[in-house]
Amino acid sequence: MVLGIDEPKVTAWLDEHVEGLTGPYTFELIAGGRSNVTYRGADSGGTKFVLRRPPLGHVLATAHDMAREHRLITAVGKTPVPVPRTLGLCTDVEVNGAPFYVMSFVEGTVLDSAEKASVMTLEARRAASFDLIDVLAELHAVDVDEIGLGDLARRDSYIERQLKRWTTQWANSKTREMPEMDVLVKKLQDHMPVQQGATIAHGDYRFGNCLTDTTAGKIVGVLDWELCTLGDPLADLGYIGIYWRDPGDTIVGGNDPTGIEGFPYYSELVERYALRTGRDVSQIAYYRAFSAYRLAVIGEGVYSRYLNGAMADELPDMESMKNSVDTRVIWALELLQNLK
Predict the structure, then answer these.
(1) Which domain holds residue 28?
(2) Which of 46, 184, 200, 243 gets the highest tally of CB atoms within 10 A of its CB?
(3) Please, which residues have CB within 8 angstroms of residue 174's CB and are 6 or more apart in sequence?
(4) Is residue 340 situated within a structural domain?
């Protein structure tokens, strides 16, 4: 019995709705928690697939909309951007207690640590880094109307709308007064760049949300489309720069393999993106600062929920969690120092 899977009902649904799969099935949890839950499945013939459902317990439906995520991956699957192939969507909660969708299983490695990148050659590390950017450029070149995503969201004033959203979130979740945050918000408002068109904005694009062929140094699947919308393409490029560590950086980072030998400098990624897209990247420091701000607000929200006993998980290092918020705010302010 696998938590979150009603095996008899899900088996019957798969047999009826997904061509090429035949039960009985096995299921194994790949990733779970406060985000959508991912299972690896296999049918009686050994064919692998992936099933995604919302987190167990009470969650806001809009925050974990399976139909929306299924729609996005299906649409992007019509483009050169590598994504798993969608196989079916179940919106009948009687089947498994919540909606879910099924997609193909893609062989690859989620590079969320230097340890996982240690098996790669130096050449493969560099190649994968540039392919990460090339895939992002492909995503940002997609005609959203042509693939049926033109009505996904508003296209204009992306950063302005995001600032309003996260400023409200900060006001609702902050656990202390932080003058530096007020200064940061004011700087972000005063130096807001002109948006260069509207594209698909993944919202969480980085090595940790991609599958990589570690031998070839190629991105073979882009995952985790929960935060995807339409908006400013440079927000995705700036977001990569929150996790990216340049060679020799002594900062202990998490959820990213970079910083070890073979991975290029972030500035090289920015230059490649500019060459691939023709976009002006001179304000990329702003987008990195904005991304650091966004993650600081999210981090404060998580810290607040732990502090108030709203999280059932075992308590993490609360002081480190609090300090990480402070660190991101200070770093964002440093990034904005040289902006005119």
Answers:
(1) 7-104
(2) 200
(3) 181, 300, 304
(4) yes
